[in-house]
Design goal:
Oligomer: heterodimer
Number of helices of chain B: 10
Mean pLDDT of chain B: 88
Strand content of chain A: 25-35%
CATH superfamily of the largest domain in chain A: P-loop containing nucleotide triphosphate hydrolases
Low-confidence stretches of chain B: none
Structural class of chain A: alpha/beta
Number of helices of chain A: 7
Strand content of chain B: under 5%
Radius of gyration of chain A: 18 Å
Number of domains of chain B: 1
Shape of chain A: globular
Number of strands of chain B: 0
Number of domains of chain A: 2
Structural class of chain B: mainly alpha
Order of helices and strands of chain B: HHHHHHHHHH
Shape of chain B: globular
Helix content of chain A: 25-40%
CATH class of chain B: Mainly Alpha
Distance between the termini of chain B: 18 Å
CATH class of the largest domain in chain A: Alpha Beta
Number of strands of chain A: 10
CATH topology of chain B: MetI-like fold
Helix content of chain B: over 70%
Radius of gyration of chain B: 22 Å
Largest sheet of chain B: none
């Protein structure tokens, strides 16, 4: 097993009262899977992602990747966050390069890689623009390119497309899917949009809130991705709706 | 582009209008206030004095020495305030020590140190430079400390995500992140320090704009006094505009709109 989530619970203190954000979560993920965490806000999906990435630690239980306990962020497991965390004093290209600067690499190599991923997110013409001169969607694409550039083994994405308009969203979903098929990277993707989950992932993990827990796991057959009129697609969507109605 | 030009001209016209109103009030007070004209000279006479002082070159000698003292004191304050602020902002027990200290020392007017500084360093450029230093130091120090304390968490998360280690975090993330606040602190410090320039030159020196004021008072030359005040105001305005110019550019670059 590549990633093992073993009896993980997480408790937060809010105004001195404990809140159980996650209760006894167990999940195994194989290398090369594209997993979507689906659920309403407050269901702990982002909390679990933060612990997988090493920004936070479980109150009880353990998360292991290739047998080693995750306790700190690593460049091998990079995260695309929602919102805007680009460094405003760097151009798009320099933002993409920041992760590469921690790796042993010449200036030219860095530029080549940055160019490649800026091209992939469709921002070649904006390489020398500062974040303040870009739209929210463009900034989010730069932060995706920044993570892809360091070539991580696992990519975590926390609702990375929430700031994008529908058209840019469709385009970038396609490129992410293409990237995943080519590179066979392990991707864990948090979303609250059912269609997005079906389109992208090979397994959908459905969360339910109060306390946050996994209520259902659905395998997505390749045929379901061919369009929202496919019988497989409709079947999965019905299944998700049924699960959500019962548990939420 | 054309719109900004119009806006700049518009603002300039308002500023000109304000100055005109001030001079008009001055003229009216001279005409109807019943003051001795030797004590309150009319604007035209002060303007004439200003031109005379410029033509004889006397003014430039004093302006130059004042600006020299100002820039030495101000630059030292910026360097010291920045370095101290960056260090203190990073180490939490230091900032707990420095906070009460600045609260204690800051309310002391820089001029209050003046006699003490003269005793220690003697008369000359040093007291004026020190007063300017003290005046400029606190704004730079405090804005640097407070900026490094409330640095955006998401920038630090970027450092974590990509395993950026010290000292790179400091130079690549922290310093640029607080740069706009530093620029703002430098701007504040400039204004404060300029106010104290005159006070710093009122004792122990025989040159500079502050000396010119004291000298004019001692010789009962109110026209020289007022002309010098105009020069101080004008230079202060120019310095402020220069710093604002850079600050706006920095903020635009950093994506801060004001």
């Amino acid at each position: 097993m590549y990633i093992e989530i073993d009896g993980v619970s997480k408790q937060f203190m809010h105004n001195k009262t404990p809140i159980l954000a996650l209760q006894n979560v167990n999940l195994n993920i194989e290398k090369g899977e594209f997993i979507c965490f689906l659920g309403p806000s407050g269901c702990g999906k982002t909390t679990l992602l933060n612990m997988l990435a090493g920004y936070d630690k479980p109150t009880s239980g353990e998360i292991r990747i290739e047998g080693a306990v995750v306790d700190t962020p690593s460049i091998k497991r990079a995260t695309v966050f929602q919102g805007y965390d680009l460094l405003p004093w760097r151009t798009a290209q320099k933002n993409v390069e920041i992760g590469l600067e921690s790796l042993d690499m010449s200036k030219e190599e860095r530029k080549t890689i940055a160019d490649k991923y800026l091209d992939m997110v469709g921002l070649t013409d904006f390489a020398n623009h500062f974040p303040s001169a870009m739209s929210g969607g463009m900034r989010q694409r730069v932060s995706i390119a920044r993570v892809l550039a360091v070539n991580p083994e696992v990519i975590y994405m926390d609702e990375p497309f929430s700031a994008l308009d529908l058209i840019s969203r469709l385009a970038i979903q396609k490129s992410i899917l293409g990237l995943w098929r080519e590179s066979k990277k392990t991707i864990i993707f948090v979303t609250h949009i059912i269609d997005e989950a079906i389109l992208l992932s090979n397994r959908i993990v459905i969360f339910s809130p109060y306390p946050g827990r996994i209520v259902h796991i659905i395998d997505v057959p390749p045929n379901a991705k061919k369009g929202d009129d496919m019988p497989e697609y409709i079947k999965i969507k019905d299944e998700i709706h049924r699960v959500c109605e019962i548990s939420i | 582009m054309k719109k900004t030009v119009i806006r700049v001209i518009n603002r300039f016209m308002y500023a000109l209008g304000a100055v005109f109103i001030l001079i008009a009030i001055w003229q009216l007070v001279v005409m109807f206030g019943g003051f001795n004209p030797a004590l309150l000279p009319p604007p035209v006479y002060v303007f004439q004095t200003l031109i005379d002082m410029t033509l004889t070159g006397e003014l430039f000698v004093h302006v130059r020495i004042s600006l020299y003292r100002f820039f030495v004191g101000y630059s030292l304050a910026v360097i010291a305030g920045l370095m101290a602020g960056l260090i203190v902002g990073q180490v939490s027990f230091l900032s707990k020590l420095v906070d009460p200290l600045t609260q204690l020392l800051r309310p002391i007017a820089p001029v209050a140190w003046m006699p003490f500084i003269v005793l220690l360093f003697g008369i000359g450029d040093m007291p004026a430079i020190m007063v300017i230093f003290i005046a400029a130091f606190y704004p730079v120090l405090l804005s640097t400390i407070s900026a490094s304390k409330k640095i955006d968490k998401s920038y630090l998360r970027v450092a974590k995500t990509f395993e950026i280690k010290q000292p790179q975090v400091f130079f690549k993330i922290i310093v640029p992140a607080i740069f706009p606040s530093i620029a703002n602190g430098m701007h504040l410090a400039l204004g404060t320090a300029w106010v104290f320039l005159v006070a710093g030159e009122m004792m122990g020196v025989r040159s500079g704009l502050g000396f010119l004021i004291m000298d004019a008072r001692n010789n009962m030359q109110s026209e020289v006094l007022l002309a010098t005040i105009c020069v101080i105001a004008l230079l202060g305005l120019i310095l402020d505009k220069i710093v604002t110019f850079f600050e706006v550019r920095i903020n635009r670059h950093w994506g801060i709109q004001k």
